[in-house]
Amino acid sequence: DCSIVGNVFNEVSCLQQSYAQSNSLTKCGVCNILDFGVMESEYWIVMECGERNVREWRKECFIDEELNMCQYWVCMLLLREISVIIRDVHAAGIVHFDIKCDNFILRQTPDFDCLFEAYREGKLSGTVFLTDFGEAVSLTTMEMYSRGAKNSPNDSMLLEKCKGTLAIQSPEMICLSEMKTKKSGSGDPGAEE
Predict the structure, then answer these.
(1) CA 152, 157, 163: angle at the middle one, nearest 5?
(2) Is residue 83 left, alpha or beta, with left meaning phi > 0 and alpha meaning psi from -120 to 50?
(3) CB 28 within 8 A of CB 124
(4) Of 13, 12, 15, the residue nearest 130 (C-alpha)
(5) Which of 25, 67, 81, 145 is the most buried (most CB within 10 A)?
(6) Cα dihedral sign, 124-135-178-54
């Protein structure tokens, strides 16, 4: 299936573009690619593995209890790291289109001292990284297309392939869904055609 080749290529190229654009202090915020390739009829990407995602960690740590002050600060410092990662990915010219807790993976259990030290030094602790660039779009690629090859896709054509996770779409995906709904006249913004 040609679309699988394109999807694998897109994910690898978006990750590599984010590595190339990031400085050494923020590289640890994006999933590392260990290998990728083709074997007979299989296309694969081998990526860094972590302990668990942020959603699972949150469920395990905060079941029916109020946060104590240390847990509160761990959450705030982890949120800071996630915000910096998103900022840096966008600065690298990548729009992820599937930002959610499931796509932020913990390398280790968040630790206040480690997170606070990174905060004081103005860098990332490496505790968490962003993964799943399957829906990502490179703004550089979009700019190359918009400069004009014949029959090149325009911005809306490139963005239409992106769906994100329907149940928890990002704000940009909701806006795109609403635009598609107005054009098609469909009543369901999440409806797939």
Answers:
(1) 145
(2) alpha
(3) yes
(4) 15
(5) 81
(6) negative
pTM of the model: 0.73
Give the pair of three-digit tokens for residue 182.
């107005």
Rounded Cα–Cα distance for residues 105 and 114 (Å): 16
- Residue 162 tokens read as 């992106």
160-181 confidence digits (pLDDT tens): 655 556 666 666 666 766 666 6
Using DSSP's 3-state secondary structure scheme, residue 130 falls into strand
At 158 the pLDDT is: 55
Tokens standing for residue 130 = 């962003």
CA atoms within 13 A on the CB side of 160: 13
Which residue stretches of the chain have pLDDT < 50?
1, 25-26, 151, 188-193
